[in-house]
Design a protein that fits this description.
Blueprint lengths: L1 H16 L2 E6 L10 E4 L5 E3 L5 E4 L5 E8 L6 E7 L4 E2 L2 E2 L18 H19 L2 E16 L3 E2 L2 E2 L13 E15 L3 E11 L22 E4 L1 E4 L10 E10 L5 E9 L8 E7 L5 E9 L8 E13 L4 E15 L2 E16 L11 E5 L8 H7 L6 H17 L2 H11 L6 H4 L1 E5 L4 E5 L8 E4 L3 E12 L8 E11 L4 E11 L7 E12 L8 H11 L6 E16 L2 E14 L33 E13 L3 E5 L2 E5 L6 E10 L8 E13 L5 E12 L19 E2 L21 E10 L17 E10 L6 E13 L2 E12 L3 E10 L7
Parallel strand pairs: 1-7, 1-8, 13-23, 23-34, 39-44
Antiparallel strand pairs: 1-4, 2-3, 2-5, 5-6, 9-12, 9-22, 10-11, 12-13, 14-15, 16-17, 17-18, 18-19, 19-20, 20-21, 21-22, 24-25, 25-27, 26-27, 27-28, 28-29, 29-30, 30-31, 31-32, 32-33, 33-36, 34-35, 36-37, 37-38, 38-40, 40-41, 41-42, 42-43, 43-44
Helix pairs in contact: 1-3, 1-4
Length: 826
């Protein structure tokens, strides 16, 4: 009864606070979705919802001319005299009649080509007309599950906190925002969120912003995960063919040409559909384009449809984007879902210039209590009316939110989940107190990453406990503590380590962490070989690459953002190191071969790799993101790296209070990462690293700078920007100075899409270069060529590279097989 009453209130609010409202239909009385509705020669407009219903905010009685504009239908103007509100005005639109003059179409004289050439020549001028403006902005996003299996990988899905019904369908996410925009091309944005609403979370703040919605077809490329070629890009004729479907005259007596956009090659990052061009000015009137998932290397996405409508203002002669709608379908593993985003731009004010202080690194901010707006506010300011399904979802989710966040409900759910079962000591156990926001987890003895093999410990087993408290999560505050137990059967030794972390907030991300205990550690702290890969290498090929030592330690770390784009972290750690030796020769295959020793400097000697010793290390590091942009939310700050600048990492390491003075040293090091996108022609990525030891002549081999080699011929990373694919793991370790270069070119299909037969693979070409320079050694270099995004259907998890290495001439070659799924097993 309460839900029905609330729904009636929502309906009353729609009636009481709407100004001009109605429904737009076609000649058969079927509703037309997403019709653009505006007051003539103003920037006061809106969009109909998918049921054809619209609301237009007018505050003063008087005479108005309402313009209804919809792609494929004749624009309709209706003049009304309003003396009181609300005022109802329905509209019925007729299909547009296209006129196609009799022409001879051939390869040299295609009328569509001439129209596109004119649009390309004029796009700079047309773009400049809307280069600077302020505007009101409304956005709404919705994700809906269409088909959800009862189980995924054997695990029960349930109703997902009331989101799903018994058929496995339902709304996962529904959210709205109202904001004020200030924008200057190409990328200066200032957005102030006035109102924010999330279905089922009355304290939530929406992530819907204008930041990721600027799809400007006057640009040569439009970003959809990767750069797609605009139908009116400078080089558009290399990617598209065009067909003039016809033209029509709009309400302002301007001729609009409807042009079909056809991809020349299927697998390239191109659109398909229609673009509408205004005669003489060659401005964009509308776009109605489809994006195929495989064309942007988003295999789980089926299709995305982008529709933009532009309105004309007779006073300033400007065509400006009034509405934008984005719809997509996607799915995998039997799951199907779709999404819809609607955007409305109103009350434009175009500017000649902005004050220099207008734009800052803060690009999005929220007004106080923006998530507390009442129904009256939303009924007045919601640019696109809710559908019946969306109205029901708000009522349902608000009710569910209150019930399911009550202590009675949370305790009842936890009591069911927290029941102890007979097999829990083996498979693990999870305890949760949702109302108190605390959880306790026992890892169990058997899971995907609990068991591994190495020559020091033999088979070894990991398990542990962890505790987490997330009181104050709305500000990003949490506390976590864990204890990890590792037992090596061949070594017959149990090691225990513990960690405690407390994060203070989501604004400067301040945290403190304390850790200590005993563990086996790789000589290279970056752990270039994973436990899983090492287990396979030793057990099947008797390749003993993982070199380990015993570390007993205690340390404390503190870090935070100190300035915009500058994060600083410091750690002090006491370490006691002891050498380890092989304790097993167990193997599944290659019984006749011998394991190499655990000494990385002399793998054929059983002598200890170093003498037992201890020292204390102090480390100070900084990450600097130049030009860092950010979003300020009441629940945290979101940093957005500025793609125009590199990211710089600085590090100072000082070892002191060692058992022997010779083990003390200082290390200064730095790293620079940068990615340059070359339009639709791919991207270049760089990772440059260098450093210098001071007083490092007699330090322990543990403290040398070790480089990430790879002798397994298996790659697990998304990119090979921090690894030498054929370099032995400890062949080039140094206690002096070093400089390493890693670079990759990813063509994003630019080259591969043009090669017959190979383009059917829907893959990407990767070119790589790696260089390592250390004193007293000739530079080591690698050149590679590979194919990425290999796989079957939607699953593209493989990569293959051919690599050649050089040092004093040709050194060797090999093939590296990339298995990205293995990254989770590291």
């Amino acid at each position: 009864m309460k839900q029905i009453f609330t729904l009636l209130l929502c309906s009353f609010a729609f009636t009481a606070f709407s100004q001009i409202r109605g429904t737009v239909t076609d000649d058969t009385k079927l509703p037309l979705p997403y019709v653009s509705v505006r007051i003539e020669n103003t920037y006061n407009g809106t969009s109909a919802n998918e049921q054809g219903q619209y609301e237009l905010n007018i505050t003063k009685p008087g005479q108005y001319t309402i313009v209804f504009q919809y792609i494929g239908y004749k624009t309709k103007k209706i003049t009304v005299n309003i003396d009181k509100f609300p005022f109802t005005q329905n509209a019925q639109l007729s299909e547009e009649t296209l006129i196609l003059n009799e022409v001879v179409v051939n390869g040299k004289d295609n009328p569509a080509n001439e129209l596109i050439r004119n649009a390309i020549k004029s796009k700079k001028a047309n773009s400049a007309r809307t280069a600077r403006f302020t505007a009101d902005f409304y956005s709404r996003g919705i994700f809906k599950l269409k088909d959800m299996p009862k189980k995924i990988f054997g695990a029960e899905v349930g109703d997902m906190d009331g989101m799903l019904d018994s058929t496995g369908t339902g709304i996962l996410y529904l959210s709205e925002t109202v904001s004020k925009l200030t924008f200057e091309k190409p990328n200066n944005l200032k957005e102030r969120i006035i109102a924010s609403k999330i279905s089922g979370n009355d304290n939530g703040f929406s992530y819907n912003t204008a930041l990721a919605t600027r799809y400007d077809f006057y640009d040569n490329t439009i970003r959809f995960g990767m750069n797609m070629v605009s139908p009116i890009a400078d080089n558009a004729f290399n990617y598209y063919k065009y067909k003039l479907e016809g033209n029509f005259t709009d309400d302002s007596n301007q001729i609009i040409n409807k042009i079909k956009v056809i991809a020349r090659r299927d697998n390239e990052p191109v659109f398909e559909g229609y673009i509408y061009i205004v005669e003489n000015t060659w401005a964009i009137y509308a776009v109605d384009l489809d994006i195929k998932g495989y064309r942007v290397k988003q295999e789980f996405m089926d299709t995305m449809k982008l529709v933009q409508n532009f309105s004309y203002n007779e006073n300033n002669k400007i065509w400006s984007k009034s509405t934008q709608n984005l719809e997509f379908t996607a799915g995998a593993f039997g799951i199907k879902f779709n999404g819809k985003f609607s955007y409305v731009y109103t009350n434009y004010d175009f500017k000649e210039s902005f004050d220099k202080k207008t734009f800052t690194n803060e690009i999005v901010s929220f007004e106080d209590n923006s998530n507390k707006k009442d129904d009256a506010y939303w009924s007045t300011n919601r640019q696109v009316p809710l559908t019946e399904e969306e109205s029901r979802d708000y009522v349902k989710k608000d009710s569910i939110f209150k019930v399911r966040n009550s202590q009675t409900y949370l305790d009842s759910v936890d009591n069911k989940r927290n029941k102890f079962h007979l097999l829990d000591p083996i498979r693990g156990y999870h305890y949760r107190n949702s109302f108190a926001k605390k959880s306790f987890n026992y890892d169990g003895l058997i899971n995907l990453t609990s068991i591994s093999f190495n020559t020091v410990q033999g088979w070894n087993l990991n398990s542990g406990f962890n505790f987490r408290s997330w009181k104050g999560e709305e500000k990003g505050k949490y506390t976590a503590a864990s204890a990890t137990f590792n037992y090596g059967f061949a070594e017959d030794r149990l090691r225990i380590k513990a960690d405690y972390t407390h994060r203070f907030n989501n604004q400067n991300y301040a945290f403190v962490s304390v850790s200590g205990g005993s563990t086996v550690a790789q000589f290279n702290p970056e752990e270039p070989i994973s436990k899983f890969i090492n287990s396979v290498s030793t057990l099947f090929f008797k390749d003993n690459y993982m070199k380990l030592y015993n570390k007993e330690f205690a340390g404390i770390t503190y870090g935070r953002d100190v300035l915009n784009g500058v994060n600083v972290m410091g750690r002090v750690e006491y370490q006691q190191r002891k050498p380890l030796t092989n304790n097993t020769d167990y193997v599944l295959l290659k019984q006749d071969d011998l394991y190499t020793s655990n000494n990385p400097q002399d793998p054929f000697s059983d002598a200890p790799a170093f003498a037992t010793h201890h020292l204390t290390k102090a480390t100070l590091s900084a990450r600097i993101s130049f030009g860092n942009k950010y979003i300020t939310r009441p629940d945290g700050k979101i940093n957005l790296r500025n793609q125009n600048y590199p990211t710089v990492y600085l590090n100072y390491e000082h070892a002191f209070a060692a058992s022997e003075k010779d083990y003390e040293f200082q290390l200064l090091s730095s790293r620079v990462t940068y990615e340059v996108t070359a339009g639709n022609k791919g991207s270049f990525s760089f990772n440059l690293k260098g450093g210098k030891f001071v007083n490092g002549d007699n330090i322990s081999f543990i403290d040398y700078k070790h480089f990430n080699g790879n002798q397994t011929h298996v790659g697990t990373e998304e990119r090979y920007l921090n690894v030498f694919n054929l370099l032995p793991y400890y062949a080039a370790s140094t206690n002096d100075s070093y400089f390493e270069t890693h670079a990759e070119y990813d063509d994003n299909g630019f080259i591969m899409n043009k090669i017959p037969l190979l383009n059917l693979l829907k893959t990407k070409l990767i070119l790589g270069f790696h260089n390592l320079a250390v004193p007293d050694r000739s530079p080591y270099q690698e050149f590679s060529v590979g194919l990425d995004n290999l796989g079957f259907g939607k699953f593209r998890l493989f990569r293959i590279d051919y690599v050649r290495s050089y040092q004093n001439g040709y050194q060797g070659d090999g093939v590296v097989f990339g298995l990205k799924l293995l990254n989770i097993l590291k």
